Amino acid sequence: MRIGDVLGAKPSQEVVTITPDAGVRDLIALLADHNVGALIVSSDGTTVEGIVSERDVVRRLHHDGTVINNTVGAIMTTDVETCEPDVLLDDLMKVMTDRRIRHVPVVEDGALVGIVSIGDVVKHRIDQLQFERDQLDNYVHHS
User: Can you point out the beta strands (E) in 31-118?
Assistant: First the structure.
């Protein structure tokens, strides 16, 4: 199973991006409006300049209450783990677990084509296991 399959199974292929000069208040509004945990930071909507999550906001808010008046560029993560659509699901699961990351932008030929969350990955894996279980159950009871 490849990451492209996970992307294809998502109900929406939309990738919400935000520019680095946008305000943190705008970021919070977009996260809430789209019911997502992270946004890709991109000036043009196709290049990945960073990623910013709810955690980034909350962690900085704990230390600096004025972070709400800052820009996305000031709080985003610039060392972004990305993958291509042909990466194996199990390989990405390992990377996400090892690096303790929850969102991975999917890039093809240098352009952003999607994003997968740990929730997407787990849902896809559970669906696979359910299918395998059903196949085994069918084999055992109808053989």
Answer: 38-41, 50-53, 103-108, 111-117
Q: How many whole angstroms separate alpha carbon 96 and alpha carbon 108?
A: 19
Backbone angles phi, psi at 104, to 5 degrees: -130, 120
Residues 14 and 123: their CA atoms lie apart, in Å, by: 18
Domains annotated for the chain, with CATH where assigned, are 3-141 (3.10.580.10)
Q: Give the helix/strand (H/E) hosting 140.
A: helix 118-141
Distance CA 127, CA 105 (A): 22
Residue closest to 73 by CA, chosen among 82, 60, 85, 63: 60
Q: Are 85 and 3 in contact (CB under 8 A)?
A: yes
What is the rounded end-to-end Cα distance, in angstroms, of the chain? 28
pLDDT one-digit tens code per residue, 112-126: 999 999 999 988 888
- The answer to whether the beta carbons of residues 16 and 36 sit under 8 Å apart is yes
Q: What are 50-97's pLDDT values in tens digits?
A: 999 999 999 998 888 888 999 999 999 999 999 999 999 999 999 999
Residue with tokens 């900085």: 60
